[in-house]
Every structure is written in C-alpha cells, then in structure tokens.
Design goal:
The complex is a heterodimer of chains A (464) and B (85). By secondary structure, chain A is an alpha/beta fold. Helices cover 30% and strands 28% of the residues of chain A. Chain A has 3 domains: 9-147, Rossmann fold; 151-310 and 342-354, 3-Layer(aba) Sandwich (Rossmann fold); 361-461, GMP Synthetase, Chain A, domain 3 (2-Layer Sandwich), CATH 3.30.300.30. Chain A has helices at residues 17-32, 46-58, 71-77, 106-111, 149-168, 188-201, 213-222, 234-240, 265-275, 367-375, 405-413, 416-428, 456-461; strands at 9-10, 15-16, 38-42, 62-65, 83-86, 130-136, 142-148, 178-181, 204-205, 228-232, 253-258, 280-285, 289-294, 303-306, 311-314, 320-325, 329-344, 347-353, 357-360, 363-366, 380-389, 395-403, 439-443. In chain A, strands 9-8-10-11-12-13-14-18-17-16-15 form an 11-stranded mixed β-sheet. In chain A, a hairpin with a 3-residue loop joins β12 (280-285) and β13. The N and C termini of chain A lie far apart (54 Å). The mean pLDDT of chain A is 87. Chain B is built from 4 helices and no strands. In chain B, α1 packs across α2 (41-55) and α1 crosses α4. The chains are: A alpha/beta (464), B mainly alpha (85). The A-B interface holds A 361, 390, 393-394, 396, 415-417, 420-421, 424-425, 428, 432-434, 436, 438-439 and B 17-21, 25, 33-34, 38-42, 46. Chain A: InterPro entries: AMP-bd_C_sf, AMP-dep_synth/lig_dom, ANL_N_sf. Chain A: This is Long-chain fatty acid--CoA ligase.
C-alpha cells in the first residue's frame, strides 16, 4: 500500500508532505536495521508521532499503542513489546524506565544527513502489518486489541466516502479543509480521524494539542477563510456549553466530529444552535472501530446510520447488536454488548449496554434505562446507576446524580431525605420499588475521563 | 408506646440500611410500603425477620393481617405490644 495523495501540509510545523516523507523514510531505514519486532510507541507530540508511526509501519514492525504515558501503564504494555520508542513527560517521580529497553532517540537525530531516494525506494506499507491498541476494560486491567494496517485504511477510506461528499456540498467555496483535533492520536479515534484520514486523503493537518478551546480559537483566527474540521470528544463539547468561545469562529467550522462516549442530546442541539451545525457523532469502540454515525437535527433525533460496508443484526432475546465489519473481520460476526432496536438494515436506535442489565432479587432491569429515566426529571441533568453489594445487606441500586440549576436550588432548600424521596417517586412511575435506587449521591458533574468513560470503581467508593 | 416506636423506627433504619434518615423522619402513622417510606417487598421480608427476632413475635399466616400489622410504625407497635413474648 502507498499514499494515494501527495499533497498534505503539516501547517503548524510548516512541513510539506515531501519533506515529511523524507523524515519517515530515514527513520524507516534505521528501524529496518533494528532486531526488535514489537515496538511500543508513545509521544505527546502528534507530529513526531506521525513520523515514527509511519516509519515503523513502513519497516513492517508491530506497532503497539499505550493509551497514555503513565509510567506504570507503560510497564504493563511492555509485556507485549520488545522495545519502547517515545518520550514520557517529566512527571517521572516513579522512574520505571530501567525495567524495559528504551530506544535511544538521539541515534536517529544524528543520522539525518542525506535525503533518501524515494523514487527507487518509495514508502510502502504491508497491509498485514500489525497494530495493538489497549482499551481500559471495566475490570481495570487494560485489554489488548489487534488490528492490521489494512483494516485502519479500509475504515479511513469509508470515512472519506461517507463524509467528504456530505461536507463538501454544504460549502460553496471549496477550499480544502484543515483538520484540527483536541483528542490524542494514541487512541483509535484520534489515530483514524486526526492522523490517518487527513494524511490518506491529502488534507492539511494542524497537529498541535489544544488544551483549551481558547487556544483553538486563537489558532483558527490565524488562518482566516480556512475551513476547519474539528476532531473532538464529548468531554470537550459538554464543557463548551457553559462558555462557547468557538462562536467567534463558527463560520470557519465546517465539521465537528465527536466520538469516544455519548454526547448529550442537549449539548448536541445547543452546539447546533450556536455553531450552526450539530456535531457528527461516531459510535464504535476500539474493538469494532466505527459502526455508525449521526448528526442530530433535533434532540429527539436518535437514529444511528450504519457505515456502508458493515452489516448489522440484532439477537432476538437481548437485542444485542452483532456486526460483520471489514474493520474487524469481514467474514465472522462480531457480537457487541450494545442493545439496539434495528429500524432497517442501515439504521438503529441504541437501547443501552447489555452488560448494564442486572438482576435485583430476580427482577431484571437496565441500569442505563433507570439512569435515562432519572435524567428526565427536571432536577436531574444526568445520572449514572450502579449496583451496590454492601456487606451484610442485600444487593441494591444506587444513583450518582448531576443536578440541574433548578435541582440544586431545590436541594439546598430541602433535606436530602425528602429530595431523594421525590426522585424515587419519579422513578416509581416506571419501575417496581425493588429496582428503584435506594442511595443517591449528588456531584457537580459526573467524573467522565477524557475518553468519555466513567470510572465505575471510583463511583462505587462514593457509597462505601 | 413512645419508647417502642423510637426503637422500631431505629430497627427499620438499621435493618434496611436506610440513608440520610432520622427516626424523626419516619411518620408514626404513614404507610411504610409503596407510598410513604417507599419500602419494597424485599424490605418487608427483611423487616419481618428483624421484628420477629427482636420482639419474639410470630408473623400471622394470614397475609391480610400481616399487611395491616406492617402498615405503619403505629400498627407495628400495636402488633408487637399485643404479641411479644
């Protein structure tokens, strides 16, 4: 496989695609000479990452991507790797680097002297080249997920097919959009949307990490008249609600992408109202890659569109979604734990996670459904329901609740007992008393991490 | 009766691991189940066992009677007072 387009610019670094390829080819030639096969790679800097990443793939090494650069995370992931390539940020009070082999980056810097002859020795990639991702399993132990380079590229080509036309027809001035991102390239969503897709489709990249939306606005203003595709996550969009600084550059924001976790319908619509377009939400996981997408027109619009090339079915008993996807395995059904209502072959509604269905005293209930019902109460912004197995007491449900402004006012003016009681009364309209949460905790906001996931263990400790 | 009702209220709270609630929050005459305190059928079972143990009373075979006895703190206290061993 070779790069289909040769036009990308790395705007922040002011590097052309040709210059970038030189860098990649130099690294490739060095990596080919190295005996190690399995390379764990971590860089904070996305530009550096792209150079080393493509060089390793071109050298046909197995590329292993840790979800973050925390010292112990790296140690854990090194069980799957022969050598570590990368830079860990300064917070190494626990220096664990002596526990594993680290590639000495200065060897490379010294070597860059003469250009590589790309005409006779072009960059090419073995489609079977292997990558390993990690997903934080709910048990706490990171789980390794294997992919081939070809699977990622098939997905990237599908993204182009699905979205390029949709987005380009909306804008009359057809300047090529620049891709900017707030998410990390170390995760599959960031790797696909912020790195592989623009490079593979010849779009310009602005590779820089934006910690605050203000920084993003500043950079966008430096490139007036340029259309921007923003690759971001619910954690980021939800925080825009209080103070949406992106309004200043809304004319330039041609597309907003969101993935990694659920985006509130209220947030999606508020963004649509203020930025003129609602985010394109992508539903999937590290294991499955993208499965479906949607761009809400209204808060009630909850239909997901399956990417073409993926076949769906749902089981009769639990309505769990199964997919035949070229991003996973085109010939074997992959069973998800997501419950769906299939509307037709290419559309579904999500009903919640099957592993969030529990039995309380023989009563089956969906924790997500109870959480969603709680969220309908005017006092409740959102809620997460979990199972508590207290010692010496029966298994019961508990709810961690984020209150609305009204909710906070009422809470301040009443006792927790009567407040809890009214939320319980609301739920009893739908559920039997047995599955109504008995314990409530109120937080300013639910502690979603930057990947849009909630740490269940942490939430459980609220009830100890 | 007053001391007993305080005791019963505390027993309910402890047995059922109720949170953020003082004996004073439990109304003497209000329904314990469904509406009122909103206890469920498993709570009824657990409370039944606890009351039996604490006061050595026998729960009626007649479910209608039990329902009446377990209706409120007041009815529970009357039941205990009349049947305790």
């Amino acid at each position: 496989m070779k790069f289909p387009y040769q036009t990308s610019q790395f705007l922040q670094q002011q590097v052309s695609f040709a210059q970038w390829q030189q860098q990649v080819a130099l690294y490739r030639d060095f990596f080919i000479s190295q005996p190690q096969q399995r390379w764990l790679i971590f860089f904070e800097d996305s530009y550096q990452f792209t150079c080393y990443f493509f060089a390793l793939i071109a050298a046909n090494k197995q590329v292993i991507l840790p979800p973050n650069g925390q010292p112990l995370q790296i140690v854990q992931c090194m069980e799957h790797a022969d050598i570590f390539l990368g830079e860990l940020s300064g917070l190494n009070n626990t220096d664990t680097s002596s526990d594993y082999l680290t590639f000495n980056l200065s060897q490379l810097e010294d070597d860059i002297k003469q250009p590589v002859d790309l005409t006779n020795n072009p960059l090419s990639f073995d489609k079977h080249c292997q990558l390993v991702f990690f997903t934080s399993g709910s048990s706490g132990q990171a789980k390794a997920i294997e992919k081939t380079f070809e699977q990622l590229i098939i997905e990237v080509e599908q993204l182009e097919l699905t979205f390029a036309k949709l987005l380009d027809t909306k804008q009359s001035n057809s300047s090529v959009p620049v891709v900017m991102a707030t998410v990390s390239h170390q995760h599959i969503y960031g790797l696909l949307f912020k790195v592989l897709w623009p490079i593979w489709s010849g779009r310009d990249l602005y590779l820089k990490t934006f910690a605050y939306p203000e920084h993003l606005v500043h950079e966008i203003k430096q490139h007036p008249k340029t259309n921007i595709w923003l690759i971001s996550s619910p954690a980021y969009y939800h925080r825009l609600l209080a103070d949406n600084v992106l309004v200043e550059v809304k004319e330039q924001l041609q597309a907003l992408f969101s993935s990694g976790g659920p985006l509130n319908s209220e947030a999606a619509i508020a963004i649509k109202d203020s930025l003129l377009k609602s985010p394109i939400e992508v539903f999937g996981s590290t294991e499955t890659g993208g499965i479906a997408w949607r761009q809400r027109a209204t808060a009630q619009d909850d239909v997901w569109h399956v990417f073409s090339g993926i076949t769906c079915k749902s089981s009769h008993d639990e309505q769990c979604l199964a997919i035949l996807s070229p991003y996973v395995d085109a010939s074997t059904w992959y069973q998800t734990q997501d419950r769906v209502e299939l509307i037709d072959k290419q559309r579904f509604k999500l009903l919640g996670r099957a592993d969030r269905i529990v039995k309380i005293e023989e009563k089956r209930c969906s924790l997500d459904e109870i959480g969603l019902r709680l969220g309908e109460h005017p006092w409740v912004e959102q809620a997460f329901v979990l199972v508590i197995d207290a010692q010496g007491h029966r298994r019961t449900l508990a709810a961690v609740v984020e209150l609305t402004t009204t909710g906070k006012e009422v809470f301040a003016a009443s006792s927790k007992f009567t407040f809890d009681k009214q939320l319980k009364a609301h739920l009893k309209q739908y559920f039997e008393a047995i599955v109504v949460p008995r314990k409530f905790r109120y937080l300013d906001c639910l502690p979603y991490n930057s990947q849009g996931k909630l740490n269940k263990k942490q939430l459980e400790t609220l009830f100890d | 009766m007053n001391a007993l009702s305080e005791e019963v209220k505390q027993l309910i709270i402890d047995t059922l691991d109720l949170e953020d609630i003082e004996p004073a929050d439990i109304d003497y005459e209000d329904a314990l189940f469904v509406d009122g305190l909103g206890l469920d059928s498993i709570d009824a079972l657990e409370l039944g066992v606890a009351i039996k143990k604490a006061y050595d009373v026998k729960i009626d075979n007649n479910s209608e009677d039990s329902k009446k006895h377990f209706y409120s703190v007041k009815t529970l206290c009357e039941f205990i007072a009349a049947n305790r061993g």
